[in-house]
Amino acid sequence: MSNITNCNSTSAQSALDLPRPFAQPLHVGRPNQGNRQRFLERINEMLDRNWLSNNGPFVKEFELRIADLVGVKHCIAMCNATVALEIAIRAADLKGEVIVPAFTFIATAHSLQWQEITPVFCDIDPRTHNLDPARVEELITPKTTGIIGVHVWGRACDVEALAEIAHRRNLNLMFDAAHAFACSHGGKMIGGFGLAEVFSFHATKFFNTFEGGAIVTDNDELAAKIRLMKNFGFAGYDEVIYVGTNGKMTEICAAMGLTNLESLDEFAAVNRRNYEAYRLGLSGIPGLSLIGYDQSEKCNYQYIVAEVDEVKAGLSRDELVRVLHAENVLARRYFYPGCHRMEPYRSHYPHARLLLPETEKLTQRVLILPTGTAVSPTEIREVCAILDQAIRTSPRVRERLEAGGELPQAAAEK
Ligand code: T4K
Question: What does DSSP assign to residue 237?
């Protein structure tokens, strides 16, 4: 976890001449929490039952609820999405090379590399921030066994084009849907595409189970295999039939999930309200454009993503991050610098950046702003006012930033 409290704010604070508006830091990814009373009741129920893990009644109920909501046959709850990805990849028998975007959280690439499968980084479409199907095709080799698309920000990949390529080239297609719980594509819930999809229910996600995740699929055989693999490969009391691991979700996590599911509509409504507040507040600020969400689809609006055009704004994305952090707005640079620039991939593929021009550009432009139930419209207006003032007075702000030194450590890290 990054140490975000140690950033030196002096230089950027003076860059704006604002009274510091936020006494407490404003985070990207503050957890959305449902009804505490209901959660505590469930904890009591769990303790009375003395059943804490290993496919308990809350986990079973949770899986049924998720499968129903997504409209798939099987949901297998997991301890987190990273382990879920690892298990899904293994259960689908992926080997050799698998095509993934470099513009994603490092877990997507690591879940392959962890089992000595090579992640082959593919460039993205700058309009969608997702895998560019035209580039995917160019990367297929005799060693390729699959494609893992990532529905970045909850906006669906071009699933039809990817499915067509996968079908024609006899590859498995799966999706990292960590951002896309409760989102739809073409009227169908994300979770129902490809061979399997993986959700993250981490604390920072739209919907959380503290830590957690799930694999969802319509494939009976795959689901059965995954169920065994997430429980060490046990097929009975004393019989192990696969190499397995421990991917189980605990009862307390499922209790949190069941409780938060009851507030899902409220979380979505707050996020939508916040998105609209940002849209209004950022409109007309030169060099800042908010990414759009398709209004005809279901959407969790969990990510407020602005793209910074340095020429028009007069400040780079990184300079704006410094300005915001100094005001206690802990904006993030997901997924800077891109998986291909992190180890071990940076050493394995030193020239990858040459094949990823759009990823390279996007990682320099993207600014993620705080939202969720912990953030109010008034606070959003203040965030927008900071950005407005910084950009309107950009030459002076830049001068002061230049005099003030480096990007704070926390912002530089990720
Ligand atoms: N695939 C994709 C595309 C993903 O984005 C992710 C996870 C995964 C796979 C893997 O899923 P999991 O295995 O995690 O289920 C965060 C999350 O830890 C990570 O889950 C998430 N993606 C990623 C995009 O963001 P960091 O390193 O940015 O977390 P951190 O500790 O800096 O926290 C973010 C902010 O949230 C901070 O400002 C503090 C705040 N926060 C965080 C926690 C945990 C809170 O206010 N309360 C909290 O309890 O990775």
Answer: T
Interatomic CA distance for residues 278 and 323, integer angstroms: 18
Name the DSSP class of 279.
H
Q: What is the pLDDT of residue 20?
A: 67
**How far is it, in rounded angstroms, from Cα 220 to Cα 202?**
26
Length of the chain, in residues? 414
Q: Ligand 1 center to residue 133 CA distance, Å?
A: 27
Rounded Cα distance between 37 and 410, Å, is: 35
C-alpha dist (Å) from residue 220 to 81, 106, 129, 226: 20, 29, 32, 10
Is the Cβ–Cβ distance between 286 and 293 less than 8 Å?
no
Instruction: Say how many Å lie between the CA of residue 235 and the centre of ligand 1.
Output: 33
Q: Would you call the peptide bond into 126 cis, given omega within 30 degrees of 0 as the criterion?
A: no
For residues 324 and 389, the answer to whether their CB atoms sit within 8 Å is no
Q: Which residues form the pocket of ligand 1, taking CB atoms under 6 Å from any ligand atom?
A: 1-2, 4, 27-31, 80-82, 104-105, 107-108, 150, 176, 178-179, 200, 202-204, 213, 330, 334
What is d(CA 163, CA 94) in angstroms, rounded to the nearest whole number? 16
pLDDT at site 7:
36
- CA 321-336-330 angle, to 5 degrees, is 30
124 vs 101, 146, 289, 290, CA distance in Å? 7, 17, 18, 18
- Coil, helix or strand at residue 111: helix
Question: Can you state the angle between helices 264-282 and 251-261, rounded to 10 degrees?
Answer: 60
Nearest to 22 by CA among 389, 270, 386: 386
Q: Please give the pLDDT value at position 410.
A: 40
pTM summary value: 0.94
Q: Letter for the amino acid at 45?
A: E
The average pLDDT across 52-70 equals 98
- Phi, psi of 315, rounded to the nearest 5 degrees: -140, 150
In this structure, the residue with its CA closest to atom 22 of ligand 1 is: 105
| CA gap 400, 325 in Å, rounded | 15
Cis? peptide before 101, omega within 30° of 0:
no
Write out the DSSP string of 145-191.
EEEEEE-GGGPPP-HHHHHHHHHHTT-EEEEE-TT-TT-EETTEETT
Single-letter residue type at 293: Y
Say if strands 118-122 and 97-101 run parallel, antiparallel, or are unpaired. parallel
